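request received
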Amino acid sequence: MENYLIAMTVFAGIYAIMALGMNLIWGLGGMVNLGLAGFYAVGAYTSALVTTKLGLPIYLAVPLAVLVSALVGVIVAVITARLQGDYLAIVTLGLAELVRLTASNEIWLTNGTDGISGVPGPWRGVLSPTAFNSLYLGIVLCIIAVLFLVLSRLAASPFGRVLRAIREDEMIAAVAGKNVLSFKIRTFAVGCGLVGLAGALFAHYSSYVAPDVFQSIVTIHVILAVAVGGVGNMRGALLGAVIVIALGEATRFLAGSLDFIAPSQAAAVRESLIALFLIVVLNVRKQGLLPEKTPVYSEEKR
Amino acid sequence: MELVQILVNGLMAGTLLAIPAIGFTTIFAVLRFPNFAVGGLMAIGAYTGLVANTMGGLPLLATLPIAFMVAGLIGVGSDKLMISGLRPSGPLAAAIGTIALGLLLENALRFVFGNEFRTFNIPPVRDWRFGDLRVPPHQVENATYALVIMAVLFCFLMFTRSGKMMRAVADNPALAGLKGINAVRTTDMATFLGMGLAGIGGVLIGLDVAIDPLIGTRTMLAVFAAAVVGGLGSIPGAVLGAFIIGLGEELALLAVAPTYRTAVGFLAILLILSFRPRGLLGERRY
Amino acid sequence: MKLTRRAVLSAGVAMPFIGRTAFAQSNTIAIGALTPQTGAGGSYGPSMVKTIRAVVDEVNAAGGVLGRKIELISENDETSPEAGVRAARKLIDVNKVSAILGTWASSVTTAVAPLCWENKVMLFTVSGADSITQLPHQGFIIRTQPTSKLQSTRIAEFLLSRGAKRTFVMSAQTPFAVSGFNTVSEVLTAAKTEVLGHVIYDPAKATFRSELEQAIKTKPDTIFFNSYTPDLTTLLRELYRLGYEGRKHTMAYAANAKLLEALPAEVTEGLTSMAPSPDVDSPVYKKVRDILGTSDPDPYSCQTYDHITMALLAIARAGESSGPAIHGAVRKISQGTGTKISSAVEGLKLIAQKTEVNYEGASGPCDFADTGDIITCKFRFDVAEAGKNRLLGIS
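response:
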């Protein structure tokens, strides 16, 4: 039981990091990125490849994965800079598919649909499974704590204020002399870097990456986390991620108790509940459980 | 010769994409948000047609209006119940809501019909041959249906009161409101029409493939791509976009491995959007 | 039992992390099924669980194993490695299962395998990727699906026996698409016949017309489809329309009863297929037929039937229900010189009398090498005629 709880908390942590990235892009920057699964894959594959093929240590591989994902984020942001929200939504959706196709087809690099197994984890094999699990949880929690502090400061900083201004009205921000494009690209890149970080952490935790991991349902879950927690609120993103994993696991137990229906029906009930939950939360609490608190001006003047 | 055959195949693939792409773009034109539940409604349409055909014994042609009605009604009903309340919070909230709605519909079908594959009961016909060129009769039939549906839609939008109202709202919602056009009725009409067309699209795509609850999800990306290439909100654009994606994916086979077909369609979008950020026929900035 | 579990579960729904009651009661033996119920493998999972459930019910009705009832916990792997890992975590850490049965997608099996060997839980799989049994699994993997090397060799030999001179291969994109083709190609070219080409396609597409035209352009007399049911459905229809009259061959898990039922007879006419198989009049195979209510049970469901039977027999043979116990005993009940048996209940009786047994399963003799791969097995070859499979032979 303990191991299970620890493992699920690690997964919640990985989702929380993605939710923080998504929150930055969507919540603060007001941009849509439905291609999250693609950046998750870029991070995971980068870290997996440089550790297994080049023998790089994990502590170098993970930052490299963040960099590569952020770089891909920059490229995507530059290409799509002129696109409006709805177009961006669909283009990013296609992008995730493109990443998955590349991972499936470029066998020389990614080992194709076979995936890359045996990705090293910190002291995995030396420690007992329980100790490894606990250590990993500690690492993930520390990373989240640091990210949370940095991002909160970022949100309250002039940079964050400009972002919110752009989100509310791009035109006014531009008139006020802000380079809208540069702000957007930087935000998009940092957000994608965070998603890539989550991918790298997933790779070293599960020791295996394959194209099948990075299906669009991952994106749906992260959107769910951010929307439920409260768009624009860092705490909300963390809470949302915990809720998404808890919901996924709780419905698992519920579906398991429905032994009077077929397993595929139980699976359908489980996925329906998750979808319904999102719809209800969106309808009932439009701002999410923890709505965004925009810093009051006087407070900031201190 | 090979090129001609590929062009024929591409055109056929394009007509299949066109109908759901029109549906998607119609909803966008009036409601101004991408309704991602289209995939779910395509699946609903496919299963409706399937039940009408295999259990009801109806011929294919008769299943189309039934699929249209059922998908349209479920589309409007679920929209009123779950999505309409999200629209005031902006297009993104509504769009995300429809992603969840699509997931819900997919699983409702899974619950009722299970995951096993089903197929239409339609006798197979060999291709017509013109020299080396092969043309499958049923796809010509599909293309004919698609063209008739497009023509009917055009007449509806041009000549009926409801159609004119929808166009008015699509052109300028504020002005339409001032003129006293009932916004709710118009949006419902657009959703009904759009989802009904998605339903028909589901049947036509379902004719050739094994139908399971994921049938809509699998095709959805190509439908979105078609609508985006043509310009969101433009019906002629959706048709044009469908042919571009259809042709692009087939022509891609000349250059890359078949497993990259989806990617080529996507690269086509990027290319077109970098020259025309609102697609080929989408012009207005709202 | 059911009541307590439900009470715990309803509490678990409200506060999932608090329901700390022991889920695995010590008086039952917990076995996990991890099959795809949603996603790309969704059509295969349901009947796989059905055969497992049938064996568990039968054994429980006969008094269980070691005097304890079997508790089957079925989880959905969603055809996704991440979801599979989470489900496996729950099975291992919460339900304390000693074996996980039925993983289908190679990616899910590869993701779940390290959890199994680290926690000393036995993993029975039907996945086809050759890389799986090459993992450092310390003997905790048993795979009932023949290796792609073995299958592909037998397919190529079969094609030759049917007179193939010019063969084209079409494969769905899977981990064994390339290795399978290479083996088929080696055998065919060694027999001085032509291999015209290989197309790997994306099975999620709605049409494969242009891919098929590529194949037909080379004028093959035989096309081998390394496919699954949904893509094969589309391929066969399009192949018919194209007017192809040559031979067509595929895997039995693709050309299952449902496909033959769903497609018009003239479309499937002459389609040959191959599956790992027991002897012609194997009682196990007949039983799986009855459980699933079909004349052509799919190979995966036959294999999961064998998974659960072997797991339970191994527990009985070892006298304890842990993963390492199954690990140690599974080869003692599945191979060797013991009495040949064909069902769990029959085997359990003999084991209780200290008689050595040798289980002959629904998917073959179930004899395993140290790698976890089956050593050898027979294959059955069927041909579709008038919408029904007719057995060509077992060899």
